[in-house]
Design a protein that fits this description.
Helix content is 18%, strand content 28%. It is of the alpha+beta class. The radius of gyration is 26 Å and the shape is elongated.
Length: 288
């Protein structure tokens, strides 16, 4: 493959902020390239300077070489190639706080680091490439990390299991922890007016997980069912956050009253005997 000279490496959660503008290490960012595939096979790009003084001819030539290599037979060839590449690297999917459908990769050269954020969906910008000067980025890494990027931070959430009372837990907000609680890939549901979100199993219904709680509208009418264990977390900007105490109590009271129980339609090996005169007469076919 033409991208072998510039292999794409998967990145860690602690690097996700480098795929976006306005981060602490922006002082090391030369600029970023945004692009899309148009109808699927086109190639449109726009460049933004972050620090134009870092954009020498050597960098320009190298960026062209990297992009062209990834376009020849790699994920930047067209939308279909990007879709296949991302499907073959599911572990590169970025966390929900970064974006539910983004995939993140990195290319290292002698003097630069390129962070590539892919979005293999039509009618969207399909890729962003953030370009950093390696020596400046390594020096900037000595700065204190931003609070929202600390991987060891915990948040207080409400965990809701089928047929059980809701439970307040303090958990890590990383993707692995969230997947462990819901038992698979996660999906976010936002039925609340507060800064809170439901995080549930994305395949809960398809996998026939146990019915758990009802979702109701403002009038109390049920419109959907959540299946499998889910949790309720707060939202702060693009990140998950702890639920304030008043929301923990409010949602606990709400969902404790929406538990669903499996009731058998018929008790096994037992048939209730009724007096003959209590049996209903068979009516006409149109009767209910």
């Amino acid at each position: 493959m033409s991208d072998e000279a510039y292999p794409l490496q998967e990145t860690g959660r602690d690097e996700e902020f480098l795929f976006f503008s306005d981060n602490t290490e922006d002082q090391a960012c030369v600029g970023h390239l945004r692009g899309d595939f148009g109808s699927g096979t086109e190639f449109w790009t726009t460049w933004w300077d972050h620090h134009a003084e870092l954009k020498g001819q050597e960098f320009k030539d190298e960026l062209d070489t990297v992009v062209n290599a990834l376009r020849k037979d790699g994920p930047l060839k067209d939308l279909g190639s990007m879709e296949r590449f991302c499907r073959s690297h599911p572990q590169a999917r970025m966390s929900p706080k970064a974006g539910a459908y983004y995939y993140g990769f990195r290319v290292d050269t002698a003097k630069h680091r390129y962070y590539l954020r892919f979005l293999p969906l039509r009618k969207n910008y399909n890729f962003y490439i953030y370009c950093y000067k390696t020596d400046k980025l390594e020096r900037a890494a000595d700065l204190p990390p931003r609070e929202e990027n600390m991987s060891d931070k915990t948040i207080k959430v409400l965990v809701v299991e089928p047929m059980k009372p809701c439970e307040v837990r303090e958990i890590s907000h990383d993707l692995k922890s969230l997947q462990g609680i819901v038992g698979g890939g996660i999906e976010m549901v936002s039925p609340f007016t507060d800064s809170a979100v439901i995080i549930c199993n994305a395949e809960g219904k398809n996998r026939n997980l146990s019915p758990n709680r009802l979702l109701c509208d403002s009038k109390g009418n049920a419109y959907d069912i959540l299946c499998g264990t889910f949790l309720i977390a707060g939202i702060k900007g693009e990140n998950f956050a702890s639920l304030p105490d008043h929301l923990l109590h409010s949602y606990k009271a709400m969902f404790d009253n929406r538990r669903m129980y499996a009731i058998p339609l018929r008790t096994p090996d037992f048939e209730e005997k009724r007096p003959e005169h209590n049996k209903k007469k068979r009516g006409e076919s149109h009767e209910r």
